[in-house]
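During the no-cost extension, the postdoctoral fellow (Dr. R.K.) reprocessed legacy sequence entries with the updated structure-token encoder. One reprocessed record is reproduced below for audit purposes.
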Amino acid sequence: MDGLVERELKLQPPRTFSLARLEPRLDDYVLSPVRFSRLHTFYYDTADLRLTRWGCSLRFRRGEGWTLKIPVPAESDALFREEHVFEGDDTAVPAAALDLTTAYARGAALEPVAELRTVRTSRHILADSGDDLAEVVEDDVRVVDGARAVLRFRQIEIELADGVPDECLEKLERLLRGLGAGKPERVPKNVRALGERARAPEIEPPALGAPCCMGEVARAAIAASVERIVRFDAPLRLHPNDEIVHHARVAVRRLRSDLRSFLPVFDAPWACALRERLSWLQDGLSAARDADVLIARLRRRSEALAEADRRDLDELLRPFCDEREAAYARMRAMLTDERYVPLLQDLVDGAHRPRLTSAATDRVRDGIAPIVDDAWSTLRKRVRKRSRPPSDRELHWIRIAAKRLRYATEAVAPVAGRSARALARATERMQTILGDEHDAVVAFRRLRDLAHDEHAFIAGQLAVLEILAQRDARATWREAWRSVKRAHRRLRG
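Re-encoded structure tokens follow.
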């Protein structure tokens, strides 16, 4: 099941529960005969348990080989993890597994940290048709140190088969709990085995409430972005696509913006140096994302063309697709560049313990206004100083300023409240309109370069549609700007 998402629910059974003694019939389902097995498992991690603290697990199990599990966000008691299986013996961690753990381990050596010996009782849950729906296992686990058992626990696991709807897991949970299988326990075996130090996240943003200071607001903002950057590393290596690249770039952009917006709170040389180093990462992601945006945009525009003209669209887009492949290749190379891992380590260190100034102790009600007002002032100046009509470049820089105001407002919104969220929404709308204007300009210029191409007729039709899109954006952005001004006045009271 390499690359598939494991959907698993764990229960903590009392001593009185026995999977083997359950009747063959389970409500609308059938339980298969009991199967017993013995498992010998070694979990690998860094000395400070970085993989485990990020929700990952890397194990070598005798007779099965290597398995890496990477968490997938889910709002339930279940564990959703992407599972990757590698061949190899226990003499060395497979290179492919090391690659996928790059952002979590960040150069630290992986070594055995726990040894488990498990007696497993397993049964499959089948539909009346005979289709396999899930496997339920009862594990009697011993954590061993040499020949000595240092911990023993039991655990029930329900794992859905591929293609079975997620909601089936909830129904099976209710049925088994009704038979005494115990309460949900969102704790994997490696975490149980390693104890409390394995439960503390490496990055834990502060909880923002009424009694907090500006340092906590700033740290919460950058910690959220750093966490996203770390978690998007493995998807970028495995199966990069337009959505993954987009979210990774947004995380980098937001982090650079927050480092600038909270400059009064952060040590300036530290924050500016980190922003500069991040620009390299942002540029690589932006090239790939911009190529995706151009191709997707032109494909959408082509839906307005005659069917006969659409037949040659792939030929028209071929040079753009080649550029996209080259941009993705450069992005993948960036993930193995010697600068990358040290940058990740400094980001994690900064999210955990940023370098702060005395302004970090300021009360929120005193510190928020300067943060938002600085971003607001930049945007207002760019709008006021624009030409009449504004050039495309001026609108581009207005959009960048709007994005910074939006990010700054979203960062303080948890403590600034409803008016800050309203300003963020209004600014996002303005940013979106100006972003469409910019994308239309870029697409038009690229299409104009094809004026002498054999597909010039199709390129010309698409170029006209981009001109119309640009005009629409230019006709609506000022109204969006007025909404931003009204929202800012309400925030300032």
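Residues 456-492 form the longest helix (37 residues). The chain has two domains: 4-198, 214-492. The remaining legacy entries will be reprocessed before the final report is submitted.
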